[in-house]
């Protein structure tokens, strides 16, 4: 539990943020209603600016040696980050502050920053301002607007080269975070505030139906889970909630990657996102989910089995990836290894053992560990003769279109990751996914597979700070997790 001192700092940040939002909204209203342009002097004084948190570290020895992968200061000097929606990140920010103040004696200051809030980020979904046509273009000329040149992942990717500037306190600044918060609502059909710290990804909608049924059964009037938030705005509350209300609701179809959130206290619940098929979707959604600083994300989806000994319904626990997805090659070259996270691997295996009820030997015959190929070609089978050598050299046991991308994004953004796939077909061995066979497979396999992912999350939740492996830290890592 963070200290009252740190919560007071976040509350002051939030006060500054809300004041800037109110000033910007009021100025927008005056311009729309009366043609009054924003006051240049007020803008120069920071009326529309994000609040900023600044930290000073004198370079003293840490009061306690800690093996944790975050909350560390390795160089004396000034650090800073501008912050959006401090109330949304209240617990996270307060925890990071406590670690740095208690272990390093860091001094914290807050004030108005220098970056202005782009006007689209202060407009509520139900705002009544007419921003169509030339009005929108004129507003963008007179008010702070989104400029892509100011939004990027240079810190996360190790490209930040600030000269005579404070070091970054965190991977993502306010504009990058606001950009992603807006995209998350658009893609998932749910409020970003509903996203939980533990995230499951799947590539088949039937997992959604099973998750909704399971999630509705967890709801109670006095327990930890009281709300199941569904894509499209539907929410189920309390004991006796009807899962079919969400399963039959069609509002999710308006969203590219619908999300479902079993909301727990302090964001300790589970989010399931149906990312569909392909590495582009996998990269897109994790680009944005990363700003929420989740504790972990796991892929539970289907794959093609590549070994003749595998059977339909067997599991593959990825411990390495052959990255033929290509969507990250410019920022994370494919020769960079993506290491397995031991705590996640152990949690997934233990979950499979517990949920299946099988002995170690029985499970060993059904669960393979090995390399997963992630391809960007949905019809990879048509050029198998060109791919066979790479598959063989990598000792690959399965192929899909998302897992390596999700793992690489976890590595890139310091979010613990893991993959447990279920073999749904074996194209190179003549077992293709025909409709009747597929339906029987889905009915038998999905419930168990989903429960393994949930059991793994339960184990990870109990792991604490050890979950955040030091193998994800860069040389010049920002102090905040």
UniProtKB/TrEMBL annotation:
<dbReference type="InterPro" id="IPR018953">
    <property type="entry name" value="AMP_nucleoside_Pase_N"/>
</dbReference>
<comment type="similarity">
    <text>Belongs to the AMP nucleosidase family.</text>
</comment>
<dbReference type="InterPro" id="IPR047039">
    <property type="entry name" value="AMN_phosphorylase"/>
</dbReference>
<feature type="domain" description="Nucleoside phosphorylase">
    <location>
        <begin position="269"/>
        <end position="427"/>
    </location>
</feature>
<dbReference type="GO" id="GO:0044209">
    <property type="term" value="P:AMP salvage"/>
</dbReference>
<dbReference type="GO" id="GO:0005829">
    <property type="term" value="C:cytosol"/>
</dbReference>
<dbReference type="GO" id="GO:0009116">
    <property type="term" value="P:nucleoside metabolic process"/>
</dbReference>
<dbReference type="InterPro" id="IPR035994">
    <property type="entry name" value="Nucleoside_phosphorylase_sf"/>
</dbReference>
<dbReference type="Pfam" id="PF10423">
    <property type="entry name" value="AMNp_N"/>
</dbReference>
<keyword id="KW-0378">Hydrolase</keyword>
<dbReference type="GO" id="GO:0008714">
    <property type="term" value="F:AMP nucleosidase activity"/>
</dbReference>
<feature type="domain" description="AMP nucleoside phosphorylase N-terminal">
    <location>
        <begin position="9"/>
        <end position="161"/>
    </location>
</feature>
<dbReference type="Pfam" id="PF01048">
    <property type="entry name" value="PNP_UDP_1"/>
</dbReference>
<dbReference type="InterPro" id="IPR011271">
    <property type="entry name" value="AMP_nucleosidase"/>
</dbReference>
<dbReference type="InterPro" id="IPR000845">
    <property type="entry name" value="Nucleoside_phosphorylase_d"/>
</dbReference>
<dbReference type="InterPro" id="IPR037109">
    <property type="entry name" value="AMP_N_sf"/>
</dbReference>
<protein>
    <recommendedName>
        <fullName>AMP nucleosidase</fullName>
        <ecNumber>3.2.2.4</ecNumber>
    </recommendedName>
</protein>
<comment type="function">
    <text>Catalyzes the hydrolysis of the N-glycosidic bond of AMP to form adenine and ribose 5-phosphate. Involved in regulation of AMP concentrations.</text>
</comment>
């Amino acid at each position: 539990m963070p200290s009252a001192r740190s919560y007071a700092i976040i509350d002051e940040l939030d006060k500054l943020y809300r004041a800037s939002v109110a000033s910007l909204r009021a100025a927008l209203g005056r311009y729309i209603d009366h043609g009054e342009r924003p006051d240049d002097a007020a803008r120069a004084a920071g009326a529309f600016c994000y609040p900023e948190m600044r930290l000073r570290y004198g370079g003293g020895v840490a009061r306690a040696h800690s093996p944790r992968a975050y909350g560390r200061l390795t160089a004396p000097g000034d650090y800073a980050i501008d912050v959006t929606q401090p109330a949304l990140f209240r617990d996270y920010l307060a925890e990071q502050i406590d670690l740095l103040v208690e272990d390093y004696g860091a001094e914290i200051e807050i004030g108005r920053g220098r970056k202005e809030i782009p006007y689209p980020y202060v407009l509520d979904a139900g705002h009544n301002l007419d921003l169509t046509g030339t009005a929108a273009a004129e507003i963008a000329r007179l008010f702070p607007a989104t400029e892509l040149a100011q939004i990027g992942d240079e810190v996360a990717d190790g490209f930040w080269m600030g000269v005579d500037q404070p070091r970054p306190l965190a991977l993502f600044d306010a504009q990058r975070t606001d950009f992603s918060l807006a995209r998350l609502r658009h893609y998932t059909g749910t409020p970003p505030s509903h996203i939980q710290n533990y995230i499951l990804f799947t590539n088949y909608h039937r997992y959604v139906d099973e998750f909704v049924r399971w999630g509705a059964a967890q709801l109670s009037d006095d327990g930890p889970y009281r709300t199941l938030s569904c894509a499209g705005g539907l929410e189920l509350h309390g004991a006796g909630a009807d899962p079919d209300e969400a399963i039959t609701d069609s509002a999710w179809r308006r969203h590219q990657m619908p999300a479902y959130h079993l909301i727990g206290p302090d964001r300790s619940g589970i989010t399931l996102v149906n990312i569909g098929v392909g590495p582009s979707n996998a990269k897109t959604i994790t680009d944005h989910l990363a700003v929420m600083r989740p504790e972990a994300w796991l892929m539970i989806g289907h794959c093609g089995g590549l070994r003749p000994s595998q059977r339909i319904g067997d599991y593959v626990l990825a411990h390495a990836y052959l990255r033929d997805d290509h969507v990250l090659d410019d920022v994370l070259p494919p020769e960079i290894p993506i290491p397995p996270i031991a705590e996640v691997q152990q949690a997934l295996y233990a979950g499979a053992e517990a949920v299946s009820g099988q002995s170690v030997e029985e499970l060993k015959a059904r669960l393979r560990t090995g390399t997963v190929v992630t391809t960007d070609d949905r019809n990879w089978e048509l050029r198998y003769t060109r791919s066979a050598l790479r598959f063989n050299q990598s000792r690959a046991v399965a192929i899909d279109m998302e897992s390596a991308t999700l793992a690489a994004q976890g590595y890139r953004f310091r979010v613990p990751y893991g993959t447990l796939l279920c073999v749904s077909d074996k194209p190179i061995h003549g077992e293709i996914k025909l409709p009747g066979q597929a339906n029987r497979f889905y009915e038998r396999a999905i419930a168990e597979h989903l429960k393994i992912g949930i059991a793994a999350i339960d184990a990870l939740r109990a792991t604490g700070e050890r979950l955040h492996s030091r193998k994800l830290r860069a040389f010049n890592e920002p102090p905040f997790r």
